[in-house]
Amino acid sequence: MKENKENPLNLENKLYTLEEFGSTLRNKFGADNYISNVMLAEIFLNKHPVYSCKIKKSKNHVSQKSCGCC
Predict the structure, then answer these.
(1) Distances (CA, A) of 69 to 30, 32, 36, 49, 51
(2) Which pLDDT score is estimated for 2?
(3) pLDDT for position 4
(4) Measured between alpha carbons, how far is residue 55 from residues 1, 2, 32, 47, 58 in Å?
(5) CA–CA separation, 19 and 16 (whole Å)
(6) Structure pTM?
(7) Rounded distance between C-alpha atoms, residue 70 and residue 29, angstroms
(8) 11-69 tens-digit pLDDT
(9) What is the rounded CA–CA span in Å between residue 33 and residue 52?
(10) Where are the domains of the chain?
(11) Torsions phi, psi of 55, nearest 5?
(12) Which residues contact 40 (CB under 8 A, 6 or more apart)?
């Protein structure tokens, strides 16, 4: 299978809530049930900030210099 270097998670071309993003990660990689989807998403985004461009921004969003989209 050919790997997409710009989107290695093969995410849909849409914006996700943190809950949806965490659920997508859980379905793709699996995770323990003691951690919420939101926390899973936040941990993942902290390690891989490039994916923060896939998250719906709140009204009081502060852009991160490391994501490249804000």
Answers:
(1) 27, 30, 26, 10, 9
(2) 47
(3) 53
(4) 26, 25, 22, 15, 9
(5) 8
(6) 0.73
(7) 27
(8) 888 899 999 999 999 988 888 889 999 999 999 999 988 888 888 887 665 666 555 56
(9) 23
(10) 18-54
(11) -105, 135
(12) 22, 25, 26, 31
